[in-house]
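Journal club prep — side note

Before the paper discussion, L.F. wants everyone to see what a predicted structure for a comparable chain looks like in token form. Sequence:
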Amino acid sequence: MPSLRSDRGCFIVIEGIDGCGSTTHSKRLAKTLKGVGQDVRLTCEPTSGPIGALIRQVLQKRLFVPDASGPRAFAWSTMALLFAADRLDHIDSVVAPALREGAVVVSDRYYLSSLVYQSVTAPDGAGALPWITELNRQAPPPDLTIVIDVPASVAAERRATRTHATEIFEIPELQERLARVYAYAEELVPKDRLLHVSGVGAQDEVALRILHAVRAAELPVIVPDA
């Protein structure tokens, strides 16, 4: 994969299963770094762009594939292609320009999500990883990926408090499998800098663990004292 590390900015990604807190803690990290005067761009995948909007409709069960037997869900391979296309648009329109300007980019999800979710939902499981990796070959690696680890049961309790309808991946058995794969995520991206933090506990505690992880990675980022 091409590198963005020659640019002046820094690219941090936060990952995990649904309900791990990746959205909450992406926002908190961005706010904390902004608080010490840094130029921070908060972003996410799926994006708000045209392909990302299409993906969100699929995830929210508002868009189906027409079939002779009736509407059905999109195939795992179609989802992999959509996520990869959204990602390349994301890099071109948001991530790369921000890094060239010297900003710190904090993204809620990136290509690790594709490697985990699409391989877990593929019929041949890990056998799909080479193809998914190839789809994302043009996506530059982040400077740091932080995986928030939580038991699937804890994540399920958190999702139960949400007001939106259950999305296609928010199935308990599937989330259990996703959590098991995220537990060894570094094996999926062996060349990336990846750190795990526990997502169990109060939000403030988890946020502090994430700050410690950013500091431990020795990135060109100003991390405030706890």
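L.F.'s comment for the group: The first helix runs from residue 22 to 34. Keep this in mind when we get to the figures.
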